[in-house]
Amino acid sequence: MNPVVLEIGSLTVRHYTAWLSGGILLGLLLILWNGYRHDPDDITRWLDVGLAAVLGGLAGARAVHVAVEWDYFTDHHDEITLIRLGGLSWHGALLTGIPAALALAWLRRVPIRAWTDALALAWPVGMVFTWQGCRKAGCGYGLEVTTLADFPDWQVAELPDVYGLYAPRLELHMAGMLLGGMLLLVMLLLAWQNWLPGVRLWLALALTALGMYIVGFFRADPAHTWYDRRADQVLDLALLFFSTLIGGTAWLIGRRPTAANTTEEIHEDHAGSSPDQSNAR
Fold first, then answer.
1. Integer Cα distance of 154 and 175 in angstroms
2. pLDDT category of residue 164 using cuts at 50, 70 and 90
3. Residues 6 or more apart whose Cβ sits within 8 Å of residue 225
4. pLDDT digits over 167-188, tens only?
5. What does the mean pLDDT of the chain come to?
6. Is the pTM of this model over 0.90?
7. E strands along 149-248, which residues?
8. How many beta carbons lie within 10 A of that of residue 266, not counting itself?
9. Which of 89, 201, 218, 233 could be joined to 65 by an S-S link, Cβ 3.0–4.6 Å?
């Protein structure tokens, strides 16, 4: 499916590419805004890390998709690198995009906890844009229903599949965009209250994985099955486990008192003690 939205000479831009690019661009702008708040004199380092995440993420997203769909690509080797044809795994994007970003953040001396908190805001924005691109391209569609009249308008719609065939289907794209919107509100609240610094990205990814696992039960687009589940659902559970593990570890480390905090608490304790109390000790 994936109809053309813009064509100028040899340049052809399709709906999915346009929406995905828009989400990436807006996400990078959010990261730059956070970088300006932390270091207004040098936000280029934050941009470098963001670009590393994008480039690494695209490579991983394509690689995992090709690996999962290897039965097809065995006979279509020439299409493996043609990302414009579609076929990206968001699990693969995280698998390579985040390590690439963290490595460059360490090299460029960008505060990793602050950068991951910025990515926690950009991530749900990308989700909303990607689901809208899927709606136009005919990917990630829901199960067919007998008739639209049996459901509320917001639950179903006449939508195309990957072959361009329209049918009454569950409106999973709206569910995905709603999930991204709710996740964005949660991340904005955490940022506003300065709650869970350094943990927000892992919380966002864990909630995304849980939501996508549930959505997977209502998807009708073709997918390989592993252990009686869609392959993407198995990857969702793996991501949920590792995000929870990393997030929990980051939370515990964040709660551990540092030497500076301990010294400050000791000084405050002595300052708050009266001379009589000090002598009594």
1. 9
2. confident
3. 231
4. 999 999 999 999 999 999 999 9
5. 88
6. no
7. 156-160, 166-170, 225-226, 229-230
8. 10
9. 89
Take residue 26 and report the two structure tokens written for it.
């807006």
Q: How many residues does the chain have?
A: 281
If one counts every other C-beta atom within 10 angstroms of the C-beta of residue 74, the result is: 8
| Whole-angstrom distance, CA of residue 64 vs CA of residue 20 | 18
Residues 6+ apart with CB under 8 A from 172: 140, 141, 142, 215, 218, 219
* Amino acid (one-letter) located at 63: A
Q: How far apart are CA 119 and CA 162, in angstroms?
A: 30
Ordered DSSP codes for 37-89: HH-TT--HHHHHHHHHHHHHHHHHHHHHHHHHTHHHHTT-GGGTT-GGG----
Would you say 155 and 142 are in contact if contact means Cβ atoms under 8 Å apart? no
Report the C-alpha gap between 232 and 213 in whole angstroms: 8
Task: Tell me which amino acid residue 241 is.
Answer: F
How far is it, in rounded angstroms, from Cα 36 to Cα 46?
Answer: 9
Residue 199 has pLDDT above 70, yes or no: yes
